[in-house]
Amino acid sequence: MQQSPTDAMRRRVVISSTIGNALEWFDFTVFGLFAATISKLFFPAGDPLASLLSTFAVFGLAFVARPLGGLVFGLYADRYGRKAALVAMITTMAIGTGLIGVLPTFASIGIAAPLLLLLARLIQGFSAGGEFGSASAMLIEFAPPGRKGFYGAFQTVSQALAFAIGAMLAVTLSKTLSPADFASWGWRVPFLLGILIGPVGWYLRRRCDESPEFQAYLAERAASTAPAKKTTLGQLFAEHPRELMASFGLIAAGTAIYYVGGVFLPAYAASELKLPLADAQLGLLAVSLSNIPLGLASGVLSDRIGRRGVIVPALLLYPFLYFMLFKQLVAEPSTAHLWQLQAVGLMLGVLGGAVPAFMTEIFPVGVRATGASLMYNLGVMLFGGLAPFVNTWMVQVTGDKSAPVYYIVVAATVGLLGMAVYRKTD
Fold first, then answer.
1. N or C: which end of the chain has fewer CB within 10 A?
2. Among 408, 376, 402, which residue's Cα sits nearest to residue 253?
3. CA distance 290 to 148
């Protein structure tokens, strides 16, 4: 009989998952925080909006690799264990991040610079692809009964922490360095620091046990005399279509909030609305830090009233508030109005407290990491990674500075439809 994990091991898993996830997501998202500078160095053009559009295209193309990474690492985690997959992913991320930190710019090597930048982003995307499903599965499989929402919320804590660390570095570098120094070497600092995730993440994750649920699943599979089932991927699509649709819808909504608010909005406010980039980064930092306790509280609440009771109200409230406050910002650009709009990102903390547990517990152990990873990355690729590019393109083509509000409304609607498809009790 499988022994229950000790409280000490549970704490180790939570700490290693949170710090490891934060380091990995920091490396992946910091590219967006420095998009305005990267656009000038790797995609020089006469029109600042065109340069930004090219940078966001590279940002979005990295997400093409994420479903592949999610599939590869998800299948690996469901067959060989969550721990082994998480160790491999964080090592791969360090390689992609380190490459960005040392890349020559367009002025030095011409067209090879943006091509190498794209390669580094694809490596990062492949690594990040399996992180959500495998790490979330690890967290909820170690959770005591009735606390899966709370444990799963540490996935949100780690992502908020990643944005907070990135924004803190961005604000510090922007405020302390001259524009020339920042453009010359300052923007590289976060990417070079990101190389540390390899040894640090490897050490933290190697010290954790394999999840007890997965060990029990392996033992049951080894002892079974029944004929082998379909492959994990075939079983997933044949037996769990509603779970897949619900997961995709939730990620479409949540990731639109995440990338429009955290990546598109700061760059857009600086380049198009002519507001100080440091102010936008400061607002992002405040929201990211606030989402840490808010996400944990939301996870606890979802354990008490159910995941649906937390998720649906947040999906209804967010687009309503975003619509009003984005229109206000465009009509009267100011730092105060920008911060008010960024504060709507607190709904991400509410969603993030319930979504990781919801997306993993609806799948059985044998397909859990694959199902969550695959839908997470398809949703992120279509509604998140391309969000900065699509929103910038919409503004450029239509001339309507408030066009991004419609993107948010559509994404939230997809999320609500996903919740409507899944009928089981949460």
1. N
2. 408
3. 21
Residue type, 278: A
- Is residue 3 situated within a structural domain? no
Decide if 360 contacts 140 (C-beta within 8 A): yes
Per-residue pLDDT tens over the stretch 140-196: 888 888 899 999 998 888 877 777 777 788 778 878 888 888 888 888 888 887 777
Q: What are phi and psi of 338, to 5 degrees?
A: -65, -45
Domain count along the chain: 1
Cα(295)–Cα(230) distance, rounded to whole angstroms? 37
Torsion of CA 107, 194, 84, 59, to 10 degrees: -50
Average pLDDT score over residue span 267-284:
84
Burial class (CB in 10 A: 0-12, 13-18, 19+), 279: buried
Q: Which pTM was predicted? A: 0.78
Q: Where are the alpha helices (DSSP H) in 103-196?
A: 106-109, 112-128, 131-142, 148-176, 179-184, 189-193
For position 175, which CATH number holds? Answer: 1.20.1250.20
> How many whole angstroms separate alpha carbon 71 and alpha carbon 254?
20
> Per the domain annotation, does 275 fall within a domain?
yes
| Structural domain contains residue 1 | no
